[in-house]
Structure formats: C-alpha cells, structure tokens
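Bit of a strange request maybe. I'm writing a small parser for structure token strings and I need a real example to test against, not something I typed by hand. Could someone generate the tokens for this chain?
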Amino acid sequence: MKQQKALTLKTLTKSNVWEVEENDIFRMWETAEKESDFKDNRNHYIDVIRSAFEIEEIKIDKPEVIKKYEARDFKVGNIHFDDNDNKKWGIKKRAINRITDLTYENIHHISAAKLIEVLDRNFGGGWDSLSQSVQDIIESGFDISTTTLPKDRLHKPGGMYDKKVNDGYEVLEITKGLWVEAIFAKAKPKVENHHKYDDDNDSMNNGFGDNYDEDFEDENPSENSYDDDDDDDFDEDKLTEESYRTTFETEEDLNLEAEDVADDDY
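Reply from user aminoacidic:
Good idea to test on real output. This should exercise your parser:
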C-alpha cells in the first residue's frame, strides 16, 4: 500500500506499526541506520516495533537453528547496530487471538470477521460479561449492537437479524437456553488520532527472547475475567417479557405477548 511504502522508522508509531509486515521492518531499519540520529533513537524504534512484533535475537547462526525459527513463522534477517555490532533477528507479527490481545492501537487493523472470531474463541456469558475496558477498546473501532431473542424469533425473515447482516454487520450468536444473544459488529471508518497512546508510560522491555511479558490478564485478572457459565447454569425462569432487551432501535414490532414467554412455554 502507498501509506505503508511511505512509513519509516521515524514515522512508525504503536498504531501504524500494525500496518507493516516483517520484511518492512528489515527494510526500514536498513534505511534508518544511515541517518545521523539513528543511535540516539534506536531503543525507541525497538520499543515501537516490539509493540506489534515478537523479536528474538538469534545468537547461533546455523542453518538448522534458523530453520527452527522459520518453522515458527519468524522472518530472519540481519540487523546492523553500529560499526562493530551486527545481529541476526527473528521477527514475527504478534497474533490477535484473545480478547486481551485487543488494544486501542490494533483494533483498527482487524476486520469485523476477525473480531467475531476472537469473541467466539473467548466468550462465555455474552457481551455484558466483558470488562468495561475491553468493551471500550472494541467500540473504539467497531459499531456494536446486541439483542437477545427466543431462537425461533431471531431469524425471522425480514427481521433485525436480516437487516443487520444486509447492512454489512458480522454476527456472533450465543445460545442461552431457549434464547439466543446476537452480537453484531461493523468496523467504523478509521479516524486519525482517535486514541492518544502514551509511549512514555507504556515503554516495553527492549530485551530479547522469552523474557518479554505483556500478558494483560495476569496483571489485571479482575478486570479481564468474565462469566463462563454454560447453558445448564442459565436461568431461563428469569427470562420474562420484561427481561427482553435490545441495544438498538428498530421499526420492527418486537413486543412479545405474555403467553409467548410464559414459563409453561419452556
């Protein structure tokens, strides 16, 4: 992409670094090392790169060792530090597989389909089971709306489900007994400087290897825990006409008659 080609180590930030790939890092480093202020800024560059990439220094430069790194999807290349210091790095883009992998910096660089995949892999109790901090991160990059309906009503032809899907939303369905919570997600247009990131207060370990630890849930276990109750623990008796809710407006008649949700119908 044109924007990616214009990026340099000097213009790289903890947000736009998610737009580049491993080979781009090697290319930008090679260009930047020729600049007079490279040594002064080198640690900062590493800090930014590490926010989106795993970096491991390869100290044993043998083909069999390099093959092991490549088998783990690392890209291997030479990094020049100064006249007498050359290193070989293995670099790999950090995976976004868990809810705690989501940040204000990378949320704009994943698709709605990828978000649904991450939510599906981590979910237990539904949208409200997520911590407020995680919800805020997701909603900074996506329009999110949810609704909970009986199974036989969710996919009613021409209903809210069809309208949302036709409008480009991805959807995740979470079964809750005889009801289903549907979570709809659609990427928001990218806005520059949407979230200010404090590089100074979030500087990362500049070392190499496996000593780097950014596991958010270990540092804040209470904020990132959510209910993993299974269907057997779901109290269907609490689902009455009054408990039905939806987080977005619709012209569709969603009023449920009392007899439709009475306990006898379960």
